[in-house]
Automatic annotation (TrEMBL):
Domain named Glycoside hydrolase family: residues: 231-502
Keyword Phosphoprotein carried by entry: no
PROSITE patterns with a match to the protein in the record: GLYCOSYL_HYDROL_F5
Keywords recorded for this protein, A-Z: Glycosidase, Hydrolase, Signal
GO biological process: glucan catabolic process
GO molecular function: hydrolase activity, hydrolyzing O-glycosyl compounds
Signal peptide limits: 1-18
Name of protein: Cellulase family glycosylhydrolase
InterPro entries in the record: GH (IPR017853), Glyco_hydro_5 (IPR001547), Glyco_hydro_5_CS (IPR018087)
Source superkingdom: Bacteria
Family indicated by similarity: Belongs to the glycosyl hydrolase 5 (cellulase A) family.
Amino acid sequence: MKRLLPFLFLLCPFLLHAEPAASVLTNGDFESGSEGWPLNEGASIQSEDSGNHFLRLEFSEPSRLLSVYRSFPIDSSHQAFVFSFRARYDNIVHGKEQWHDGRIILDFKDAGGKRLASPSPPYFKKTSKGWIEKTLEFTVPAGAVRLEIMPALFNVKAGTFDLDDLTLTPADPAPIIARREAHIAERAADTARRAAAVKPTIPAPPADKMPPALRVVGNQIQTDTGTTVWLQGLAIPSLEWVSNGENILKSTEIALTEWKANCIRLPVRDNFWTGKGPYQKDGGAGYRQLIEDVANLCATHGAYLVLDLHRFRAPEEAHVAFWKDAATRFKNHPAVLFELFNEPHDLSWDVWKKGGFVTDEKSNATIVAENGEKLRGFQSVGMQRLLDTIRETGAQNIVIVGGLDWGYDLSGILNGHALDDRGGRGIVYSTHVYPWKSAWQGKFLALADKYPLFIGELGGEEKPMAFLRPDQHEDPYTWSPDMLGLIQKYKFHWTGWSFHHKASPRILLSLETYEPTPYWGQFVKDALAGKQFELKKLR
C-alpha cells in the first residue's frame, strides 16, 4: 500500500482509539532515568516530590541548540502513528528568529539518511500553567525507514522545557486521513470566508481625484502634461518583518500630512503577499489589502507609493511570481511605482541583469556586509526578467531598479548593463547612500545627466552601526546636511530611512509620539518642509 505524506493533527482525547496498541517508545516516562536518552549538557532527568521523573532542558547560553536525540526504526507494517506527551515550560523567550523556541522535532529519514516530508514540530513559548497534555497523529511517508525525535530548546534567549510520558503508538491510517481531509477542507473554507470578508478600509479616490500618472522623460520624472515632479518622502518599514505591519496606515497619514511627504516607500515581502508567513491564515488577503489601502491613502493625498520588494542578494523565481501578481493588481495605478528588488549584492553585473548562478562567495572583500545573512549559491533570474514579467502583465508603471553593493553602486548602468524597458513608462535607477559609502561621483552621480535618480534609502546614526569599523562611521550632524544639500542641488528623488523607531538609521524616536531623532529625523523633517541645506563636500 502506498504510504501518504505525513500530517500533523492535534487531537482531543476522545478521538483516540479506545484500546491503542503498545508504544514503541521505550522509557518515555523516564522512570528508568536516562536509559535510551543520551543526555547533553543542559539536559537532565529530574524528579518531583511525588517521585515522578521527567526530562528537563534548561537554558544555559544564548544562540545554542540544546537537545536530546532518539532514533527509531520503522516497521514496514507501520503506516501511521499517534504521538502523545506531557509538557511543562517556563519563561521560554524565543531567539533571533520566531522558530527559535522550545519544540519537539520529528524527522522521517530514508535509507540514505535523507529527510523526508515530516510533521510540523509542536512548539512552545512563554510559560505554561503546569503540565499540559498534547497528542498528535501523522502518517508515514513512502520510503521512510527511521523516525528521529529530538526535544530541543532551539537557540532561545531563556527558558526551561520539561517533558514526560512520551508515547509513540502505531495506528490505523484511515481515520487519520479522514480527519486530515476534513481539517484541510475546513481550513480552505475558512480561508475563503476570510478573504471574502477583507474589505478596503480606505477606498480609492475617484479617477479625476487621482494624482497624475508619471513617466520618465530624459533624466526627469514628469506627468503626461509635461509637469516635472520631485518625489520626496519617507520609507515606512515593518511589512517586511510582520504581516500586519506596525502602525502602517497611521504612519502613512502622518508622513503625508504632518511631515509633508509626497512619496512613501513601502517595503514588502513576497512570502507575506502569498500568505505563507508566520501566523497568516487568510492566504495573504489581509496583507494585500493593507498594501492597497496604503496606495489608496497616498492617492487620496495626491502622493505616490513605491512598492519595494524588500529582499537581498539577487532575485529568484519566487520574486517573478510576486511581481506577476502584484503588477496585475496595481497595473497602471497612477499613484504606484514598482521597485524591483531592494538590495542586490555580491554578484556580477551580468548576473545582476541577465541572471545566472550566484556563488556563495563575497564578490568584493572591501565592501561592508550590511546584514548578517549567510551567502549561499543559487540560480538568479536577473533584473531584466523581473522587469519583463511586469511589462507582460500590461503594467506600464514606472519601475525603480537598484544597483550592486547593497543597492548603492550604479556604475555598471553606464557600462552596458542598463535594462530595456520594453514599452513601459520608464526606468528610474535607485541608490542607497549611507555615511560609510564613498566615491559618490563614480557610483551614482555619473548617471544624473542621463537618468532620474531615486535615493531610496539614506540616513545616519549617532553611534557606529554594529557591522562598521569605528573609522567607517561619520557624525550624522555633518553628513546629514551635506547629503540633503546634494539631493536639493540635483533634485534627486528620495525617501529617508526609516520612518520607524526600530529599523536603523532611525528617523523617529517612537511610533507613539512621532518625535524625530535629533541627529537624523529632524534634518529629514526640515528638508521635507522646505528648509534648504548646503552641500559642502562630496564623499
